[in-house]
Amino acid sequence: MKFIIHTLVIALIAFLLGSIVPYYVMMILIGAVSAWFRGAAFLAFIAGAIGVASVWVIAPLVIWSVSGSDLPDKFSQIMGFSNGTILVGITGVMGFLIGGSSALTGNFLGKLFRERNAGY
């Protein structure tokens, strides 16, 4: 349950702040959230990766399907791809790696400053 809430909070941050602040500010906030959520490093990475990647894939696809624009196809042709879906997929992979890395860094930073058990 904690993993699902962690993922949803990260996705909410990515969705609400994605168009307002630069991505590196958003990643710092995702790291802070992951430092606050205590847990395993692997789960923090997966929560950040899924949260950011889902927003970075679903939002462009919804905007693209609602507007019916051919702009993604034109951008993908400029970049040398066959269609705009590949461009959205690359964006999703980038969001997966960047979001996961930010959450993992925040998790490790939180563990660094957390008090350890001193009982030997």
What are the main properties of this structure?
about 120 residues; mainly alpha; 5 helices; about 80% helix; about 0% strand; elongated
Number of strands: 0
Helix content: over 70%
> What is the H-and-E element order?
HHHHH
Distance between the termini: 32 Å
The average pLDDT score comes to 89
Main sheet overview: none
The best one-word shape is elongated
The share of residues in extended strands comes to: under 5%
Report the total helices. 5
Low-confidence stretches: none
Radius of gyration from CA coordinates:
17 Å
Explain what this protein looks like in three dimensions.
By secondary structure, this protein is mainly α. It has 5 helices and no strands. The mean pLDDT is 89.
Task: Give a brief description.
With 120 residues, the protein is mostly helical.
Secondary structure layout:
Layout: H1 2-17, H2 23-36, H3 41-67, H4 71-79, H5 84-113
